[in-house]
Amino acid sequence: MQRVCFLMELIPGREDEYRRRHDEIWPELVAELTGAGVRNYTLFRRGTTVIAYAECHPDADTAFGQVGATEVNSRWSQWFRDVLVSTPDDGGRTEAEEVWHLD
């Protein structure tokens, strides 16, 4: 299992829309995420910065690579092009290095 944290930037003024869309997250996307091994996936927001945390089995490249290859992920990413400065699909994700962890 690999823990991963990454940051994304929202288009200013689109914060409420970003939340609304996640309040209505698509069940088929959730199924793809869990089926690919993504667990404990959490999004936080501070201003226009979104901080994401997930635990990936066996690792982030494998899990998110599997999700990224799906049709539902393509539709989801396309839907967010008017909310995010850039989507994770086009390199709009900045990973953070894990420094310390407490179980």
TrEMBL record:
Source organism of the structure: Streptomyces triticagri
One term of GO molecular function: racemase and epimerase activity, acting on carbohydrates and derivatives
BP-aspect Gene Ontology terms: rhamnose catabolic process
Source species taxonomy: Bacteria, Bacillati, Actinomycetota, Actinomycetes, Kitasatosporales
Protein name in UniProt: L-rhamnose mutarotase
